[in-house]
Write a structure and sequence with these properties.
The complex is a heterodimer.
Chain A lengths: L6 H13 L10 E5 L8 E4 L3 H10 L5 E5 L7 H7 L4 H10 L10 E4 L9 H8 L2 E4 L7 H6 L15 H26 L4 H17 L1 H10 L11 H25 L6 H20 L1 H4 L14 E4 L9 H5 L5 E4 L4 E4 L10 H5 L5 E4 L5 E2 L1 H7 L7 H7 L1
Parallel strand pairs in A: 2-3, 2-4, 4-5
Antiparallel strand pairs in A: 1-3, 6-9, 7-8, 9-10
Helix pairs in contact in A: 1-2, 4-5, 7-8, 8-10, 8-11, 10-11
Chain B lengths: L1 H4 L5 H8 L3 H10 L7 E5 L5 H8 L3 E6 L2 H13 L6 E5 L13 E7 L7 H14 E12 L5 H22 L9 H7 L2 E8 L5 E8 L6
Parallel strand pairs in B: 1-2, 1-4, 2-3, 4-5
Antiparallel strand pairs in B: 5-7, 6-7
The chains are: A alpha/beta, B alpha/beta.
Chain lengths: ~400, ~220
C-alpha cells in the first residue's frame, strides 16, 4: 500500500530546519523504498541532512524507486562533498551494507551532480561495480530526468540562486542573529525586543532580496588574494546595507519612540545594526552558490587544463555547476573559458579520468588531482599537507 | 570523538585530555592481548596510537581508516619509529573489508571507531570481522559505551553533556555511544572473554573470541 505523504511533518521540518539552517540535522541512513519499486526501478542517493531527505522524498512522491541515504554527518550534499563528508567511503558503504544489491537487478546509481567534488565515479565503479550517473543539481528536476531516460537538459547542470533560496539564506542568518542579540537585550532592554527582531530580519531580507543588484558588483571585482575578504565591491554593498539599517534605526529611535531623543538608545541601535550588516556582507559570497566563500582568502585558485592529457570526453562540462568549460570540437579539447564564474568546487578535477585538470594558486603552486581528491578543500590549510610540500 | 577528528594534528593531545589521561592506560591494556608474530587488523586506526603499541609487542598490523589526514599522521609516526615494514595503512571504510581474505588475521582490534558507525554498518563489520579472523582469533574493542542502569545514565549524561555541547558547537556533529555491544557480539558469533567497564560505564573494553560453531 502506498503511504500518503505526510504534509504536516514536511511543513514543520521545513520551518524548523530553515530557521536553524546553519546546523546539521542527521537523518537515519540506509535504504528507503519510495512507492512500490521493482527490480528495475532506479536507485538514487542523497545525503542524510534531514531537510534534504524530506525534500527529496517530496520530489519523488510519484516515482517508484529506491533511495539510499548516505552518512554525511547530517550535512547537505554540496557542503558535505566539498568538505569531505560525502566521499567514496560513504557511498561504497551504503551500497554494500544497506541491502540494495539484493533488491534490484541493475547496478546503476544516480548521485546528485553536486556530489561530484567528493565522490569519484571511477572508484565507486572499481570497488562496487556500480555505475554512477550524475543527476540534476536541483531535486525538483528529478522526475523530468528520470522520465527522459537519465538525460539532463542544460538547466539541470547549473546552480542558480532564485528568490526562494535567497529568502531561505536570509532566514538562516536572521534567526540565530536575532536569538543571540535577544539574549543580550532581554536583561536590559526587554521592551525593545520586538523592534530588534524586526530590524535584524529586515536587514537580512534586504541584503538577500537586493542580491541581484549586488551580484554584478561582486562579479566585476577580480578576486585577488589581498582583497579577497573585503574588496571594493563588498565595501559598496556594506555602505548600502548599513544605510538601510541606519534608516531603520532612525525610524525606531526617533519616530516610533515617542519620548525625546535618547543618544544611548540611538547609539546601541547603530552599533548592533552595523554589526549585523557586517556579518551579513562579510561572507555574502559564501552564502550564495554563485561564488566561492571568501573566508579562505589565501585559497584563490585557478583551474589549469593540461591539453596534452585532455582527451575531450567532456566530463568536466557535465559536472561543472557553473558552466565554466567549453569544448573545442576541432581539437577535441576542454577549455576553461569562464574563470570569473568558477566557485572552485573541484568537481572537474576530481572527476577527470585523465588527471588533466589541476588547481594553481596565485604563486603558481600546483595542486595535483591526487592532492585535491585526498584532502578536498583542506588542501593547503592543514599542517600535514604543508609539511608534505616543503 | 568528532571534535578531534576534524583537526587530526590535535587528535592525540585532545583525546588524552578528554579521557583524563586514561587513554594510554586503556591502549596498554588492550594490547596486552597481542602476541609476538600476530598479524593484526586495526579497524579505524586513526593516528595509529593503538597500531604502534601492537607493533611494540611484536605484531604486524594492517590499519584501515577513512580519514586520509589521520592516516598521514599515522604514517609519519610509523616512519619516525621505523615501523614502515610492520604497519600497512589503507584508506578504506569497514564496508570494504570484504576485500580481505577469510581467516587472514590472528587478531582484530578497534578503538573509538564503532561508536561512529550507523547500525547497519556495525552489523556488517561484525560479520566481516568474524570472517577475516582465524579460528579462535581475538576481537579487541575499546569504545564509548551507553550505561544500562538509570542512575549511571543520568550521571553520564551530566558529565557528557558539556562535552557533547562543546563538540557540537565546534563541529556541529555528535557521536552516539555504543549500546549493548556485548550482546551484539554474542549474536554475531563471538564468545566474550572479558568485559571491562569503567566506573561510570561510559567506556567499555571487550575481549571476544571467534566461536567455533558456524553461524546458521
Amino acid at each position: 500500500m502506498k503511504k500518503t505523504f505526510n504534509w504536516l511533518s514536511y511543513f514543520w521540518i521545513n520551518v524548523v530546519e530553515t530557521l536553524l539552517r546553519f546546523f546539521p540535522f542527521p537523518a537515519k541512513t540506509g535504504m528507503v523504498k519510495i512507492g512500490s519499486p521493482n527490480r528495475n526501478s532506479p536507485v538514487l542517493l542523497t545525503c542524510n541532512f534531514q531537510l534534504t531527505v524530506r525534500r527529496v522524498k517530496h520530489a519523488l512522491k510519484d516515482v517508484d524507486c529506491y533511495l539510499l541515504i548516505a552518512n554525511t554527518k547530517g550535512i547537505n550534499v554540496w557542503c558535505a562533498a566539498t568538505g569531505g563528508h560525502l566521499n567514496n567511503h560513504s557511498v561504497i558503504s551504503v551500497i554494500k551494507t544497506s541491502g540494495i544489491e539484493k533488491q534490484v537487478d541493475h547496478k546503476k546509481i544516480v548521485l546528485p551532480q553536486l556530489a561530484a567534488p567528493g565522490v569519484e565515479s571511477k572508484v565507486i565503479k572499481k570497488k562496487t561495480s556500480w555505475k554512477v550517473l550524475w543527476g540534476p543539481v536541483d531535486i525538483k528536476d528529478i522526475k523530468e530526468f528520470l522520465d527522459n531516460n537519465f538525460t539532463k537538459s542544460e538547466k539541470m547542470h547549473k546552480v542558480t540562486f532564485p528568490l526562494i533560496e535567497r529568502i531561505e539564506m536570509a532566514i538562516m542568518w536572521a534567526f540565530p542573529l536575532s536569538v543571540f542579540l535577544s539574549l543580550i537585550w532581554i536583561p536590559f532592554f526587554i521592551d525593545e525586543l520586538l523592534a530588534l527582531w524586526v530590524q535584524v530580519w529586515a536587514i537580512s531580507l534586504i541584503t538577500f532580496l537586493l542580491y541581484p543588484i549586488f551580484e554584478p558588483l561582486l562579479l566585476k571585482e577580480k578576486r585577488q588574494k589581498k582583497h579577497a575578504f573585503f574588496g571594493w565591491s563588498k565595501s559598496l554593498i556594506l555602505i548600502f546595507v548599513s544605510s538601510f539599517a541606519l534608516l531603520g534605526t532612525v525610524v525606531y529611535t526617533i519616530i516610533l519612540n515617542t519620548n525625546m531623543f535618547e543618544p544611548w538608545l540611538f547609539a546601541r541601535w547603530c552599533i548592533f545594526s552595523f554589526i549585523v550588516s557586517i556579518i551579513l556582507v562579510i561572507d555574502l559570497t559564501g552564502t550564495t552558490p554563485i561564488f566561492k566563500s571568501d573566508t579562505h582568502g589565501d585559497k584563490v585558485f585557478t583551474i589549469k587544463v593540461d591539453s596534452e592529457k585532455c582527451e575531450g570526453t567532456g566530463i568536466c562540462l557535465s559536472v561543472c555547476p557553473r558552466n565554466c568549460f567549453e569544448m573545442d570540437e576541432e581539437k577535441s579539447l576542454a577549455i576553461f573559458k569562464r574563470e570569473q564564474d568558477c566557485v572552485q568546487c573541484s568537481a572537474c578535477i576530481v572527476q577527470c579520468p585523465f588527471d588533466a585538470i589541476q588547481f594553481e594558486d596565485q604563486k603558481g603552486n600546483i595542486f595535483t588531482p591526487e592532492t585535491v581528491r585526498k584532502f578536498k578543500l583542506n588542501l593547503s590549510g592543514k599542517r600535514t599537507i604543508r609539511e608534505n610540500q616543503s | 570523538m568528532k571534535v578531534l577528528e576534524s583537526s587530526p594534528h590535535r587528535y592525540d593531545k585532545g583525546i588524552r585530555i578528554l579521557t583524563l589521561g586514561k587513554i594510554d592506560e586503556i591502549y596498554d591494556r588492550l594490547v596486552e592481548n597481542i602476541d609476538k608474530g600476530d598479524h593484526v587488523l586495526d579497524i579505524g586506526c586513526g593516528t595509529g596510537m593503538l597500531s604502534v603499541r601492537a607493533i611494540n609487542k611484536g605484531a604486524s598490523v594492517v590499519g584501515i581508516d577513512i580519514n586520509p589526514q589521520m592516516l598521514e599522521i599515522a604514517s609519519k609516526r610509523a616512519e619516525q619509529l621505523d615501523y614502515q615494514a610492520e604497519l600497512e595503512l589503507l584508506e578504506m571504510g569497514v564496508a570494504e573489508m570484504d576485500g580481505f581474505e577469510d581467516s587472514s588475521f590472528d587478531k582484530v582490534m578497534s578503538s573509538l571507531c564503532f561508536s561512529e558507525l550507523p547500525e547497519y554498518e556495525l552489523e556488517y563489520t561484525l560479520i566481516q570481522t568474524r570472517r577475516v579472523l582465524k579460528e579462535e582469533g581475538l576481537f579487541i574493542i575499546g569504545d564509548e559505551n551507553k550505561p544500562r542502569t538509570l542512575i549511571k545514565k543520568i550521571l553520564n549524561f551530566l558529565i557528557r553533556f558539556p562535552l557533547v555541547l562543546i563538540t557540537y558547537i565546534l563541529t556541529q556533529t555528535t557521536t552516539s555511544a555504543l549500546y549493548n555491544l556485548d550482546l551484539k557480539l554474542q549474536s554475531s558469533g563471538f564468545e566474550l572473554i572479558s568485559v571491562r567497564n569503567n566506573k561510570l560505564e561510559n567506556f567499555i573494553e571487550i575481549i571476544a573470541r571467534k566461536s567455533k560453531e558456524s553461524l546458521s
